[in-house]
Amino acid sequence: MKLTNDRPCFDPEAAARKLIEPDKSIDAVQDGRIHIEKINAPFLYTLKGGSPEFGAGIRYAVEKGWLELHESGTYVRLLVPGQDVLALRTEP
Predict the structure, then answer these.
(1) Contact 42, 1 (CB under 8 A)
(2) What are the boundaries of each domain within the chain?
(3) pTM for this one?
(4) 48-79 pLDDT per residue, tens
């Protein structure tokens, strides 16, 4: 039996960082908008993350100011395009 905390995206911070990684390679459609399915599909199928981890990662990234989630939930926007978000560290 495999434990769930062995999953690569179990931690909300790790999930948020995995969500932001594809954002740099995805072309924004308008005003920096990225459709949510363009980060959802790679997270679920390539990284084998689960939907609770996806939600926790999105919430974490929004709380930290890395992403802006539209109220409709259809797109996100990377808020710090000039910085390397993956290099940002949270305080312990």
Answers:
(1) no
(2) 9-87
(3) 0.75
(4) 888 899 999 999 999 999 899 999 999 998 88
